[in-house]
Amino acid sequence: MSKTGGHLASNLGVVELTLALHYVFDFKKDKLLWDVGHQCYTHKIITGRKSSFDRLRCSDGISGFPDPSESEYDEFLVGHAGTSIATAIGLAMGQGRRGKDDRIVALVGDASIVNGVSFEALNNLHLVKRQLLVVLNDNSMAIDPTQGAVAKYFSRVRLSQTYEDLRRTTNNILEHLPVIGKGVEEVIERIKKSLRMALPASQLFESLNIPYFGPVDGHDINSLIKLFRALSHQEHPAILHVYTGKGKGFSPAEQDRRRFHSTGPFRMNGDAVKSELQRPSFTEVFGESLLELAEKDERIVAITSAMCDGTGLVGFRKKFPDRFYDVGIAESAAVDIAAGLAKAGLKPVVAIYSTFLQRSFDQIFQEVALQNLPVIFCVDRAGVVGADGPTHHGIMDIGFLRMMPNMVLTAPADAVELKLALEFAVGENSPIVIRYPKDCVPEQKHVRPACSQPFELGRSIVVKRGKDCQIAIVSYGSVLKEAFEAARRLAKDGISVDVINARFAAPVDENIVALLGEGKGVITVEDHRLACGFGSAVLESATAALGGIKGPIRMLGVPRRFFRHDLRDSQLMEAGINADKIATTAREMLKACEAIGCPRDFA
Amino acid sequence: MSKTGGHLASNLGVVELTLALHYVFDFKKDKLLWDVGHQCYTHKIITGRKSSFDRLRCSDGISGFPDPSESEYDEFLVGHAGTSIATAIGLAMGQGRRGKDDRIVALVGDASIVNGVSFEALNNLHLVKRQLLVVLNDNSMAIDPTQGAVAKYFSRVRLSQTYEDLRRTTNNILEHLPVIGKGVEEVIERIKKSLRMALPASQLFESLNIPYFGPVDGHDINSLIKLFRALSHQEHPAILHVYTGKGKGFSPAEQDRRRFHSTGPFRMNGDAVKSELQRPSFTEVFGESLLELAEKDERIVAITSAMCDGTGLVGFRKKFPDRFYDVGIAESAAVDIAAGLAKAGLKPVVAIYSTFLQRSFDQIFQEVALQNLPVIFCVDRAGVVGADGPTHHGIMDIGFLRMMPNMVLTAPADAVELKLALEFAVGENSPIVIRYPKDCVPEQKHVRPACSQPFELGRSIVVKRGKDCQIAIVSYGSVLKEAFEAARRLAKDGISVDVINARFAAPVDENIVALLGEGKGVITVEDHRLACGFGSAVLESATAALGGIKGPIRMLGVPRRFFRHDLRDSQLMEAGINADKIATTAREMLKACEAIGCPRDFA
User: Fold this and answer.
1) What is the ipTM of this complex?
2) Inter-chain contact B517–A603, Cβ cutoff 8 Å?
């Protein structure tokens, strides 16, 4: 992993836990469900994928998440948090109905268990009338220390426990659990009585009537094996609470658990391998720009969902701790809290990755769009995301957000525009979305000064006006650099094209719509699914305004299939979203037009 | 309400609670946030809207939900559950930052508080460092009795409490609470000590470190006033747990709380006013068809989210209690549970209203579409919904679902087709969506036998083939009856058109795509937003296949604005989704074509 990078710290924390689970259960038959899934490396190593680790998260290598296409030991390809308990409930009920006696284990972290979906599942655990073991892997961390009341509660419990307490709890569970013919309530009562104090962390789960055991030491492999053996025979759902240490065994990771949550290549002394000098990321530019704006406008507050670092808000949190809210893995509540803040007259900026914002769809609809509240959504990781793969691509946000009245959708092409978009957003009185990719900002001096103009609602920028040209390339967001590069290459062959930076997907600029009535060939380019995306919005707007589309049109974007982990650039190439493909498309379009006398009759 | 119908039982339960809140707080300045919001009638009556109640939920009358456009006493227009606590947190923090001392009250039911968003909010309540009162209105009912572990826990508490206990708790809170200079923890300790037993329902909230008071009698208006006075002075968040009885004071509603949750017109003895004989609803046809299929195929199981009655599953639950799962207001977990069931080899049918399925977007993406599991989504209330208004229209499902690979989207035109669609779905090995509206099934003998053919993946039905005609009407779902009626009227004027029943929105039939290459005028009709809807899918498919669109095209659907409560037919008329509009559109299209020599040059 020092060469490939990956989710190091979480995986080091669950080595003993994973080995003990595999020692007791037979996961060819039994089912192991991972929550989030990025902590499955040990599991992969011992299920036949050890030799593939030099290509972890690389194009031809294995995924960083469980993946049924890799191994029969993997059940679900997952990367979003909080889903394992609910899935396990369904699986347990289903296996029960089909007369199977497979054991089912869901492994969930303390950061995931506070997610709303986890809670909804815990509230429904009673539906299961057979074995189902939930292992709560409590390392007191999400990427940052876990937030919220449940985390505080776990942490109070943790602080009150000595290592000796953990051993005593383990022994007590083992002593009482295998007793045959005892109801689980009675067993738990007996365990409690024999302990120095009541099981302190059981309160929450007791109120939900869920048999709770623990906390125990998650690095004591011998005890874990005994505990899993005992618990695998229970014919009812149960929770085992284990303590683990993120980064365990590798001291640089133990000391900087945040950095090693998801790391790039590093030296064995912990130093990062310096990558060649790169331009800043969109994330960094967002963080800096927001900080600048917040210094001038004290209405600005920021909300994130366990992703302070990932969304570039570390500087903001440091500078304005009382204007920064991390709500934990709770994207739905994050948006409702933002709606309340906006209602009170503030300017909340919600920074959530595109793929996780899918969790907030209904709240954005009801609490924000329907009330027309000026919440600013800064949607990072919009587009394909590279090594994290299919669970993490942010390629549906334009679609689900542009269906809502009042929502303004915008995407900056580079660093200058990201700042301009933010300034524009702060000045608006409607909800507004700013999307940008997991990428460095491009160097785009050639688009200045056109793209240095302030954002105006629904106004695009003509970056390059072709000469008597038949084709316009209309790009949305950071793919402008590809559109411009395509135009440069086409110009070398004497083909002149317009290049337009759309800036807005809702509303679509009338000037873009007009192009489709002129009979000019139009190529739309976006880093989003073709279905419901920017190109689709252009088609709809043109149809509504003109009653049809006069010229030929091609849409470039992510086609209707899932894209595996790979380099982001490779994924863009595979999807056909780059200068090459744009230029080829333009040439084909011209050829077709010449053959049939375009624009009057192009088909 | 006996004349207009509405949410009677829930409103009768909160009369005293509402009056006491208004007596103590000044909601012109203070903020009252309703959860779900259908229990706001008393509030509306005493805030100037008493005389409007004869037009409750009618076109020119007041909404059945809080609505800021009606009154400054209403904060948020809401109808989906579980959002009030999170919104209140944001509002409280925002008002705090702006130096306002308004009191904030969130009123949430026991069915709403188990929703994942509520839990995420409770987990973040500690963010608020000032007054915020959550009133937990516990009537032990959603529409059906509340489901899940929390409900059972509340119910254990409820059963253990006598009326005398409630009074004692009230007096103890009042005795201890106003003490100035005491920390809230100490106050709670004192209250607990002076009670016969520990506050039994406090366990759940204590583990979350939330100051909890109660349970108290929610119909004892004098005590409530005193309690609210005392609690309004607390400078920290707190929960007051009150018991109320749904339907209180009107014995027919007390006795049949489910029927009177949301009732049509009724007589004062409780009898329903018989509406004129109508055809069965899509909902009823779904329920019966599923029951028939389930008798033949024991893999079929059904999952709903607190909407057994509303989704037509009462018969199924009665016949197959062990194959029916009601997970409470937990749409996200419902879908993950279904994914688990499908993984185990069953055929789960998830029956959720379109508007509430927005809560499941991310789970449908990750646990169902990405794994390609054969979950069947029966999406009721798809389209505009009439009296429930803007929070409840189901007009975004096509858009958010068709972005996902593997998803098959279908919509039956009538009862025969709904049954055929279900049969088709059970035979498929992919996730599939069947959408249908809140409406009676149309009588459509004229579309037989064409529309009696079994569903074939991505295959549309030509219902009527025009003679040398220039126009095709392509309809998706139940609006076929409007398309057919438009064709009938046009035929009277000697205008012949094709009528096509699309059946599928994903994949779009190649034959429909081909129409757009022929230069024929096409009118798409759907009961969904124009953005990202069926027509949009047709445009995208045609562009991808043909490189452009040859003929004129018009799309009829719900435009980009919110539609108020009204009759469903009026909303369809307002949106321009009916036979009139289709016929007019066809005539305009022909006129434009004649003027400019269509199809070669139509713009």
Assistant:
1) 0.96
2) yes
